[in-house]
Amino acid sequence: MKAAVIVFPGSNCDRDMAVAFEQAGFETQMVWHKDTQLPEGLDMVGIPGGFSFGDYLRCGAIAANAPICQEVKAFADKGGHVLGVCNGFQVLAETGLLPGALLRNAGLKYICRTVGLKVEGESIYTKGYETGAEIALPIAHHDGNYHADDATLDMLEGDGRVAFRYTDNPNGASRDIAGILSENRRVLGMMPHPERASEAAHGNEDGARLFAHLTEMLAEA
Amino acid sequence: MKVRVHVMLKAGVLDPQGEAVRHALGALGFEGVSSVRQGKVIELELADGTSDETIGDMCERLLANTVIESYRIEHL
User: Shortest CA distance to A164 belongs to which of A203, A197, A202, A142?
Assistant: First the structure.
């Protein structure tokens, strides 16, 4: 199984994400944002957290228009799996691969702490958790306030595309949404950082279960 | 040619920054400020004859996120 992690100027969770993929059994390659092609035979693309392009204009907006993102879009359109965490979620929303947008936190503050999450929508990413399980993952963002119009929110909930919900909403996100899935459930965008809670030394391994089943699930798919 | 693009959050989209500014104005003693909305102004220098359609395309594809923002193009 092969994974690629996209690296933008300002990405700062790229190596953490690569380590999490490696631990889960992926052969992982870093891909620079100016590259115009993804490696051959990829099974998974990760878009990491950070502050791509300094969050200029809007978080993720410049990155979403980087050459490699056209390739990521094409990969997802062909049914590829894409995981976007934090800034990666913002990038996925800006590309249009996921609906909605991430606004400034309602309390205006950058929030860096561990939050409670409820696991919901079914996907290869949530397979390692019981549906309805409560887990804890770290968040670290200034713009994680998920926003979409009511029709979109109803659609996401109706189709079971809310992957994670905050148990105690830290940022004002609509309907406590922390992560959502694409229509085919292969693209996941989430504000919390599973890769920062994926080994004993992190003090929390709740994130490891997100990565742990990916290779076996992809092999079955 | 010069063009100024005004980008604003759409009505109904919560603007916590605008809200903070409103509170700060209240704290300074300015009364009757019932709402503050904060946006962006982007000035562009463009080749003469650039069409409104092209400028609109710039706004749609990059300058504004039309999920949450509206834009207005002003020729200078």
Answer: A197
d(CA A196, CA A69): 24
Is residue B51 within 8 A of residue A130, CB to CB? The reply is no
Answer whether A90's CB lies under 8 Å from A60's CB.
Answer: yes
Cβ within 8 Å of residue A66, ≥6 positions away = A8, A33, A34
Q: What span, in angstroms and rounded, lies between the C-alpha atoms of A78 and B54?
A: 30
Q: How far apart are CA A96 and CA A104, in angstroms?
A: 19
Residue among B14, B17, B63 minimizing CB distance to A172 = B14
Instruction: Tell whether B1 lies on the interface with A, counting CB pairs under 8 A.
Output: no
* Biggest distance spanned by C-alpha atoms of chain B: 48
Q: What is the pTM of this model?
A: 0.94
Among A71, A94, A120, A195, which one carries the catalytic annotation?
A195
ipTM attached to this prediction:
0.85
Contact A81, A45 (CB under 8 A): yes
Strand partners, A129: none
pLDDT, tens only, B11-64? 989 898 999 999 999 999 999 999 999 999 999 999 999 999 999 999 999 999
